[in-house]
């Protein structure tokens, strides 16, 4: 499954309105007009102090605000919004993107995305759509966590009653098994929703998460990990890049294609994602260890990694396994060359024992095909679509798995000229 493309909102769920705050009436009017054709209700406010009062009185799914306003900055408003409505998705519009502002806001959890003026209408609407879906996902996770806590409480009560109900031991054990299975299913649903969030935000993140998870399952078998450690490693593999949801898409793409092209500010932003990933993985107490593994998966065996420059065995064993799997799954090199590169870096970038486990697992694991997002202009004959291409009305233009030729590409370009194709185009590598 694909976890915000496979994320199916509750058809009966109606999201609260979107709040837009900007002291310039002309900008408010532009945002109002942009959002007019969406299915969401929009509330606008020019005064940030008045907007705070609105937040006390009415629930909102998304809060969009300008940074520079008299009386209160956008970040100050979003900080208040986080206190008043923690589930609402917070988006900051700014003309000047300061690294200190970015890092501070992301670390404090004040914002979901930055939008830099001037913005592209399609990207803006896509951001708003993802923001609303994120709000619903968080609401559903909150309900899920409450249900899990309730079931945990039921487990405690059942355990207390065991001594008093000896004759019912068999029946109660069966009931406990059903409850534990339900808890496991709930956790897996939460993980799948998180992967779906990544895939909707940036398609290749979701497909890479599944490749890394498949490889980690094989490595767990080779390393004879305990059931608990296998679960932690697989969960860490699925969520290892979730911290990238706070990074602009164009920076992620440059990091994947040519990491040396990043400037210091962009590199610093990328190197924050394991820390943010650890924070995001804390949505349930079951994932405390997962957060630690995510934080350490970009550490190097020689201490030259990030974010904490851990060395050798100071890096958690599961993080050392995950680091090798991520390096292979994300490598732009052909499989044979990627494998050879990992062998060469054993003892420097990677733990030699983790490399040994990886090489043995690679012989038996069947990995999902690698995917990448492309633009219409980048389509070439011979590429194979990883997902079908649809019109804005939901009609299928070209199915998933179709190998492209000049005719298919021309068909897409002609349709785009008449009715722009706004969905992500994903092909197999």
From TrEMBL:
Superkingdom, taxonomy of origin: Bacteria
Organism: Limisphaera ngatamarikiensis
Sequence ranges assigned to domain Response regulatory in this UniProt record: 17-132
Entry-linked SMART domains: REC
Residue stretches making up the HD-GYP domain: 183-374
Pfam families in the record: HD_5, Response_reg
Gene3D superfamilies in alphabetical order: 3.40.50.2300, Hypothetical protein af1432
GO biological process: phosphorelay signal transduction system
Keyword Coiled coil in record: yes
Protein's UniProt name: Response regulator
Coiled-coil region list: 141-186
Location of 4-aspartylphosphate modifications: 66
Keyword annotations: Coiled coil, Phosphoprotein
């Amino acid at each position: 499954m694909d976890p915000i493309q496979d994320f199916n909102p509750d058809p009966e769920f109606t999201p609260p309105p979107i709040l837009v705050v900007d002291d310039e009436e002309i900008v408010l009017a532009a945002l109002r007009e942009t959002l007019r054709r969406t299915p969401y209700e929009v509330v606008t406010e020019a005064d940030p102090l008045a907007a705070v009062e609105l937040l006390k009185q009415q629930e909102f799914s998304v809060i969009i605000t300008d940074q520079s306003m008299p009386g209160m900055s956008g970040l100050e408003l979003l900080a208040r919004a986080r206190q008043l409505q923690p589930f609402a998705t917070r988006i900051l519009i700014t003309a000047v993107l300061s690294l200190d502002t970015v890092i501070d806001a992301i670390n404090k959890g004040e914002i979901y995305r930055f939008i830099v003026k001037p913005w592209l209408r399609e990207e803006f609407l896509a951001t708003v759509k993802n923001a609303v879906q994120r709000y619903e996902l968080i609401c559903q996770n909150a309900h899920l966590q409450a249900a899990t806590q309730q079931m945990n409480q039921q487990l405690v009560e059942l355990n207390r009653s065991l001594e008093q109900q000896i004759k019912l031991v068999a029946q109660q054990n069966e009931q406990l098994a059903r409850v534990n299975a339900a808890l496991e299913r709930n956790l897996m649903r939460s993980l799948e929703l998180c992967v779906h969030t990544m895939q909707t935000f940036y398609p290749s993140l979701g497909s890479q998460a599944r490749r890394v998870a498949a490889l980690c399952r094989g490595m767990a078998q080779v390393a004879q990990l305990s059931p608990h450690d296998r679960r932690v490693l697989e969960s860490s593999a699925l969520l290892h890049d979730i911290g990238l949801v706070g990074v602009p898409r164009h920076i992620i793409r440059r990091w994947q294609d040519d990491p040396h092209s990043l400037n210091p500010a962009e590199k610093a932003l990328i190197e924050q994602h394991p820390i943010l990933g650890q924070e995001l993985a804390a949505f349930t107490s079951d994932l405390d260890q997962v957060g630690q593994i995510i934080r350490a998966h970009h550490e190097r065996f020689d201490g030259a990694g990030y974010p904490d420059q851990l060395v050798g065995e100071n890096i958690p064993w599961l993080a050392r396994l995950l680091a090798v799997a991520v390096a292979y799954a994300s490598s732009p090199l052909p499989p044979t060359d990627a494998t050879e590169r990992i062998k060469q870096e054993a003892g420097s970038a990677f733990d030699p024992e983790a490399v040994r486990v990886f090489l043995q697992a690679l012989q038996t694991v069947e990995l999902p095909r690698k995917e990448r997002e492309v633009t219409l202009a980048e389509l070439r004959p011979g590429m194979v679509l990883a997902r079908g291409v649809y019109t804005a009305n939901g009609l299928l233009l070209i199915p998933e798995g179709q190998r492209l030729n000049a005719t298919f590409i021309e068909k897409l370009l002609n349709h785009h000229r008449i009715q722009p194709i706004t969905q992500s185009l994903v092909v197999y590598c």
